[in-house]
Amino acid sequence: MEGLNLKEQLFYYYRFGVHTSDFLFREHNLMHRMMNIETGEWPEFSELLPQDITYRDIPIVKVWEHIGEMKKTDWNTDDEVVLSWDHRYKKYMSIEANIEGRNRTAWVWALMGVQCPVDVIVEDNNVIGFISTNTQGCSVLVLPGLEELTPLKLWNDPKLSEANHLVKHYGTFYVPMRDGTKLATDVWVPGDLPEDAKIPTVLMRTPYGRYAYANGKMNFVQRGYALVSQDVRGRDDSEGEWLPNHFEIEDGDDTLNWIASQPWSDGKVGMIGPSYLGKVQWLAAASGNPHLKALVSQVTAGSPFVDVPRLGGTMLSGFLAWSFMMADKRVNNNALRRIDWNEVLSIRPIKDIPQKAIGRELSFWTKWMEHPNNDDFWKREDWTLYGDKIDIPALLVSGWYDDDGRGTIQAWDMNKEHKRENQRMILGPWMHHFNTTRTIHNIEFGSNAIRYDLDVLYVRWFDHFLKGVDNGVEKEPKVSYYMVGQNEWKTDENWPPEGSEYKKLYIQSKGNARTSMGDGYLNTTPSSDQPADTYKFDPLDPAPYLIDVSENEMAVPENYKDVEKREDILVYTSKPLKEDLTVVGDVYAEIYAASSAKDTDWVVRLTDVDESGNSIRLSDEILRARYHNSFEKPELLEPGKIEKYTIRMPKIANVFKKGHRIRVQITSGAKNLCFPNHNTGNDHATDVEMITAYQTVYHDQNYCSHIKLPVLKGSF
Length: 716
Prior knowledge:
Radius of gyration: 27 Å
Distance between the termini: 58 Å
Largest sheet: 10 strands, antiparallel
Structural class: alpha+beta
Strand order of the largest sheet: 4-3-2-1-10-9-8-7-6-5
Strand content: 25-35%
């Protein structure tokens, strides 16, 4: 049954390497059946109704509706195919296999321009399968017997734990913490587990619903692991107060000890999960618990004043979408989507926003408002302070446009400082919802921007560090990163990569560098006697930060060419490059500036400018001026006094193409990302007064403002 010209066609569905469902495509209806993971039995086929828009990770109904056109499409004509519903596919990669003594080749066609694309696999002009990825892993729909012509062949590694176990729900437990609070916890174990068997555990601790994440991890149980999924304190069915990150060191420690005490546990635990589920891994590790043996840390949140919610000492307004989503005890995704964000973000004082926007107080928002500085309240969740206790093999996954990407680099730097072994990092061209798209806000990357192998790597990581399997995962390159501009994956043993050298570009101008059409320059040598540049920062009209708050992604690669025309943005641009320039690593800015106000904000942004003048954001950072020496001990400014601001900007890997220009923007506003500084020096939570600040940026022989770029290849 290889062709798709039959009136009835059977497809097998694999999720994370495990055959879980079958689909029967018929001319007038779609039939399906799902294996019972507890018994291994397959039921009879039943009709899948059209209103079931998605089925697991692949939108089966849509595939079925469009497969007729796919059958008639000539996939041999070009390297790009556009179907009638505007789906654009690029010929991507070949997969070869020997099936029943015959060498066969299939091609994967990558769907461009959408999130969570469904790629098509074609052999001899016949569609034989489909691939879909999300943040949890990869799913495949394929004609029976042709699995080797799909990414499923990656699961054939003989050193991988086989998915040959049934799944048993061991029970729901209310695990007591040291203060008596009970956390809802579910446990699954292999169904054929002997009574005296001891096995390692994969643990997830989540505020988003323990069942939602557990459903995507049953393959670990099928591969011989126990799976534990827990609602963190105050969420879903767990008791206690919901105060994000505040209790996670102690609760993580107590949960690990509880797991180790169970009759099925061998005392070894690995943790996995993204974002909040990533941060709780590091907070559990900060307890020094000996049972935690491995981490798969995906897009982890970092320390509060370096990452969310107090980035650079500001208060992130873009984080309100998440806050509203988490206002109830169970996640409310509808709360993300609003059409009145402009009005909501304009409410003052900001401590009252929840009451006025959603009609009630948010206790965690209120507590955040009570702590303007980096005091003990915030330090309870700063896992980077415990590097002396954290010594755990960690697989880190993040991306250039991950708004929590700073957390991943904090983890890497912390472990590097303490000389920890078995640290590995993957950095892709991804948003916080990593590995889900090849196009972000009209910026298109290569077909290879999505990887099919991450879930395989997760299993290999746990197999080695929890089961002791000698699979060589610890010997592979420590860093894998995607080079934007070349659209290629690179590997290295270090971050930043070997050979990366910091070089300075100094800002210069013949007058105020206010617009992209003005006189702002970047040069390799500092100026001697140029006048300073000035602009006016009005907190009632701050420069915009180009994000959609409802999208809940706060670091996308937008085009700032029109924003740069504003009078409150200084713009400094290099000459067109004579050769490609490869920049890989963290970016630093050293700015000398003065303000007429007691407090203000400074925003520095790096962009890549093409021949048409498009100015694409690569990296930026914001710093609240009162914290330029310390987040713990703020110092208000002396109006008019020149201060030095050293700003570390997030990591990049970008090839500035020949003919492109490097651009640096300096401003004081980032509307949508963070609440603007009122410039008064008052408490940001309660302040309702706003004043205009007059800003001055210096770049003469005494105050050489500049940016430092980690150059790997090429010259300015």
